[in-house]
TrEMBL record:
<feature type="transmembrane region" description="Helical">
    <location>
        <begin position="126"/>
        <end position="152"/>
    </location>
</feature>
<dbReference type="InterPro" id="IPR052017">
    <property type="entry name" value="TSUP"/>
</dbReference>
<keyword id="KW-1003">Cell membrane</keyword>
<keyword id="KW-0813">Transport</keyword>
<dbReference type="Pfam" id="PF01925">
    <property type="entry name" value="TauE"/>
</dbReference>
<comment type="similarity">
    <text>Belongs to the 4-toluene sulfonate uptake permease (TSUP) (TC 2.A.102) family.</text>
</comment>
<feature type="transmembrane region" description="Helical">
    <location>
        <begin position="189"/>
        <end position="208"/>
    </location>
</feature>
<feature type="transmembrane region" description="Helical">
    <location>
        <begin position="220"/>
        <end position="238"/>
    </location>
</feature>
<keyword id="KW-1133">Transmembrane helix</keyword>
<feature type="transmembrane region" description="Helical">
    <location>
        <begin position="68"/>
        <end position="87"/>
    </location>
</feature>
<keyword id="KW-0812">Transmembrane</keyword>
<protein>
    <recommendedName>
        <fullName>Probable membrane transporter protein</fullName>
    </recommendedName>
</protein>
<feature type="transmembrane region" description="Helical">
    <location>
        <begin position="164"/>
        <end position="183"/>
    </location>
</feature>
<dbReference type="GO" id="GO:0005886">
    <property type="term" value="C:plasma membrane"/>
</dbReference>
<keyword id="KW-0472">Membrane</keyword>
<feature type="transmembrane region" description="Helical">
    <location>
        <begin position="94"/>
        <end position="111"/>
    </location>
</feature>
<dbReference type="InterPro" id="IPR002781">
    <property type="entry name" value="TM_pro_TauE-like"/>
</dbReference>
């Protein structure tokens, strides 16, 4: 039953990614956390994220802006180091409680977000640094880059540019964490074997998501994901016995 649950959770996560281009980690992390440690969930999702982000970034490569990607990538690197340390040494109960709060916060941000149709040419450097470092910490802990999603959405002027830059930044994050996780031992043989077992769910989920994308309203999918995130985050907080 545990393996079946993990397969279904992986399918749902990458079904969402196939539709939106992101969101796999926000769905996968809380669902996986019901049955496995975050020290397993995060590196497993990392292994899946590298090929999927590479595919989307390459497909949308003409829309990549180095002015967006480079500074965010540097700030991500700064935050990933302490985030990885917390992942390796932190109490798993505490990590699940923090993840619950983060997931609910991201869901609320998705509800209240106002999409702008105009490209923002000037950005506050302080905001860039805060978002980049916090995103790095969350990426090191859970592989979550939702703060970047909100930021890049406001600094790009079309859907293709958004997908290109968000996946390119995520790919940079993936490569950095691949080396750090390997060095610290977070990425181990158990994680690799589990990833191989779950890989069919990733492929099927991505294919199904991209197919449904052409037939389904984006708002319907977004609202479903938000509901799932809020429920999952609330249950994680309750299960942690910290509230």
């Amino acid at each position: 039953m545990k393996d079946l649950f993990l397969l279904m959770a992986t399918f749902i996560a990458y079904f969402v990614k196939g539709i939106t281009g992101f969101g796999n980690t926000l769905v996968m992390s809380p669902l996986f956390s019901f049955v496995v440690s975050n020290r397993v969930t995060t590196p497993v999702d990392l292994i899946f994220s590298i090929p999927t982000n590479t595919y989307i970034a390459w497909k949308e490569r003409k829309n990549i802006s180095l002015k967006i990607v480079l500074p965010l990538s540097i700030m991500l690197f700064v935050g990933i180091i302490p985030g990885t340390f917390l992942l390796k040494t932190g109490n798993d109960k505490m990590l699940k409680a923090i993840l619950g709060v983060v997931v609910i916060g991201m869901a609320i941000e998705m509800i209240t977000r106002k999409y702008s149709k105009r490209k923002i040419n000037r950005t506050n450097p302080l905001i860039l640094i805060i978002i980049g470092v916090l995103s790095g910490i969350l990426a090191g802990l859970y592989g979550i880059g939702a703060l970047l999603v909100a930021y890049i959405n406001r600094t790009t002027d079309n859907k293709s540019a958004f997908r290109a830059n968000i996946c390119c930044v995520f790919l940079t994050d993936n490569i950095i964490r691949l080396f750090i996780y390997s060095y610290t031992g977070i990425l181990n043989m158990h994680v690799i074997i589990l990833s191989l077992l779950l890989s069919p769910a990733v492929i099927i989920g991505m294919m199904a998501g991209m197919k449904v994308y052409s037939m389904m309203k984006e708002d319907t999918v977004k609202n479903s994901v938000i509901a799932l995130l809020i429920i999952s985050g609330a249950v994680l907080i309750i299960k942690s016995n910290l509230i």
